[in-house]
Amino acid sequence: MERFKSNGGEHVNSAYDSTLDEPPIYETTFSNGEHRTVRPSVVSAFGHDTLDRVPNIDFYRNAGSVSGHRAVRPSLQELHDVFQKVMEDDVEGSDGTPSDDLESAVPIDSKKGAVKFGWIRGVLVRCMLNIWGVMLFIRLSWVFGQAGWGLGIVVIALSCVVTTITGLSMSAICTNGVVRGGGAYYLISRSLGPEFGGSIGLIFAFANAVAVAMYVVGFAETVVELLKVCDDHSALMVDEINDIRIIGCITVVLLLGISVAGMEWEAKAQIVLLIILLVAIVNVFVGTFIPATEDKKSKGFFNYNSKIFLENFMPDFREKETFFSVFAIFFPAATGILAGANISGDLRDPQAAIPKGTLLAIVITGITYLAVALSATVVRDATGNITNAIVPGGFCNGSTAVACELGYDFSSCEVEKCKFGLMNNFQVMTMVSGFGPLIIAGTFSATLSSALASLVSAPKVFQALCKDNIYKALYFFAKGHGKNNEPIRGYILTFIISVAFILIGNLNTIAPIISNFFLASYALINFSCFHASYAKSPGWRPAYKYYNMWLSLVGAVLCCAVMFVINWWAALLTYGIEILLYIYVTVKKPDVNWGSSTQAVTFVSAVSNALSLSGVDDHVKNFRPQILALTGSARTRPALLDLAHSFSKNYGLCLTCEGPRSEALQEMNAGMEKNQQWLRKTKRKAFYAAVACDSFREGTESLLQASGLGRMRPNTLMMGFKRNWRTAGTESVQNYVGILDAFDFEYGTVILRMNQGLDVSHIVESKPLTLVCARFPIQLSSARSVNKLHSLLQLLSLVQLSFFASFSLSVSVCGPPPPQVAKMNERLLEASSQFKKKQPKGTIDVWWLFDDGGLTLLLPYILTTRKKWKDSNLRIFIAGQPERSELDKQEMKSLLQKFRINCTDITVIDDIHLRPSSDSLRNLEDMIEPFRLHEGSKDTAQAEAMQKEQPWKITDKELSEFEEKTNLQLRLNEVLQQNSKSANLIIVSMPIARKESISDFLYMAWLDVLTKDLPPTLLIRGNHKSVLTFYS
């Protein structure tokens, strides 16, 4: 069958496959009698067959999308260019993956049969289990004893405020596009970029791994305590610390087995643990309604009582505790809200599940903490001694007055520390509950569920980080196994880290660091939401609307403040580690582009600054050379680019430009991207631009008029000297000289000449050819071989066949160049890198012959401020009259002092007016002879006819009128040879040719003889507006 495709510009969209994700095709006959194949969706929409496609979600997918196959719409060129009928067999298929962005990489080979969780099992259950930790059963009563239920509510509320704001921010980020695996790392990295994401991702994964050890040690300590109580230490295997290590290691092995068995088994284990935990919580509530026994009363439990409730309202901080220290102890109990987000890759619908499950978990757990506080049932101090019972209603005073009124005298607790009560007994929950062993089971459930959640979270987050290849050394851990892409290698690494910290046996030192690591993640999630909202990027369109950018900022600040409240040195350590990782990722510059809000804010700031700058008039003190360098492709004239970069460095604008471009526009656009990437990789701070035009002059004029933005516009044109002007042809020379129209656009102009030349394009283009020939040696001995090589190079997208037009068919392209050519190329490459290297000790000779506003002096001064040129001293040469040389020198010295420009020497040249040597004159005559008209010996009519026929030639009249100026260029070269032959760089005022008075070839002869046989020479002419001032 046949179909239409674009062949304009010899370009075919390699990513376009018209059959991808399309309805079945069918045959139909149109009104004009034509019978052809069409697609029903296209015909039903428009009534005719067309390459245009109706909007479809598949066009907007990333490559490797797990929710559907990616389709690629036809390119604009295919729709706009001239259409040709081609056979279907001639059209190559497409893989539909035009982007090499890591975000577009296929996540796994197959998702068939993968286990996916809904919002309840995947998020709600996990978050509740992770938030309900040991704190619920062991420390909550102590918190309310110290802070009272008044400030205790504040402690819980403040913790919930932090987590709720973080949950709202996370909900907004989650609903702003498809969420893949990686949890907090994925959310932060896709919002703030790889620098923030890479740094927080690594410490967040590490924090989860160490948290496994922390929870398991908590479990092991509880078991050891039970063993000690059961049989008076005789049940211990070795001793207390080693028993904790043994039990901890065995527990981690069991948890690892559950995790490696698969997410389905891990989820079932979480459900079992949740049921146990819920039963334990209900058991506490039931116990508060069971009438208290005498034993429980002696330990401070009196059921619900308003007097106890009122007494426990006010705080009673003891042992140097404060509100902030109590808050620091409780806050880790509110963390764990990322447990669901951390397995985002295993959720059926992360965008819906994460917000719903996380926020509901925060609400349920917050209410539970408030309800289980027991502030109305247990007094702060109790002896546990039944004999302290007294007759109720006696005289009572002091902190134990309420207990006294209820029939127990605990006044001894005011003198010495008691063992029971909210303040003293960490096992209050067990004592109050209806059945004590259930609380122990709940404690086990809380610790094990948190450990299991962290054991699953750490490898999942770490795997997502490794997949993005931000830390290349860690890519080994990116590989997944099984239908759920389980990170087995990550599990093993997490296991090793956990066991290592379990063997320490005491995690009191590491615990605050872990809490700060989690808080740093919360802070960045909040900041990500604020940053994305602040950037006002059109791509920020979260489906979840119940968030506020300023609330997110407050949440970020709160998280940072809480970090210091918990432990100031741990907060500083966390910031230090994050900053070091941030710097590392920034220096390494990972090759990813996720459209982060950092990019959006940078763009907004750049536009804002450019607009504010446009409202300020230019001032001579703020003048900077903004270079428009005509380099061609960025790699073809490295010496010109390096010198231009030395002028602008990081403080000015440098545009490298190319034109005309003969190839298709899309290829030109692709070339622009490649050239910009090359500039970035080689650390040249410059922008690249290309224009499509018919001539070099037209392209340059377009660039001169349209380049830049506002005040960020080029003001100096820089180009190389045209060495082949005598053989290039009339049109080429006219185009080159015509570029001096830059003066009309008020540009300063700089021309660089080097004896070896500047253009290395033939060497750059031959490198890929040499590589191809090394692998596929082909002799161009037949047209068939040429076609083979053409096809090969097209396949590799290296060069066009036209590159080989100059080669003879009987010569091997892959052979080495002749020795003479190789030596010339070697010298050219050495010269092309001259300005990239540090310059040897020497001079920069400035021949400031004409006042052009100071550009001729400013540019060499800027060079001396660069590290590469710091050993080069300025020498100034000026023209003067013999009788006043010393006076001219003093005037120039005074001027330079006012300009605050230092130089080592000022030389007055007072013999420039002398006639050049006969050899110089003879060389000039030989140079321009092919371009002279010689109309002087003809009659007037014949001379006019000759001039009309060849208007570009040099007339005898022109040579006569500008003889003095011509001789000046010759004489200047002689003086330059005498004084500046050994300089590192020569700066000379550029001669100007008046329009329609000086022929192009005569002007090129001037420039040629002026700069001939000299070290690297810059011809400079400013726009005759001051760029230097001596005013403050």
Automatic annotation (TrEMBL):
One of the protein's GO biological processes: potassium ion homeostasis
Q: What is the protein's membrane topology class?
A: Multi-pass membrane protein
Location of region: Disordered: 1-33
Ranges for domain Amino acid permease/ SLC12A: 122-628
State the reactions this protein catalyses: K(+)(out) + 2 chloride(out) + Na(+)(out) = K(+)(in) + 2 chloride(in) + Na(+)(in)
Which UniProt keyword terms apply here?
Answer: Cell membrane, Chloride, Glycoprotein, Ion transport, Membrane, Phosphoprotein, Potassium, Potassium transport, Sodium, Sodium transport, Symport, Transmembrane, Transmembrane helix, Transport
Q: Which GO terms describe its cellular component?
A: apical plasma membrane
Q: Where is the SLC12A transporter C-terminal domain?
A: 637-768, 823-1032
Q: Does the keyword Glycoprotein apply?
A: yes
GO MF terms held by the record = sodium:potassium:chloride symporter activity
Q: Where in the cell is it found?
A: Cell membrane
In which family does this protein belong, per the annotation? Belongs to the SLC12A transporter family.
Q: What is this protein called?
A: Solute carrier family 12 member 1
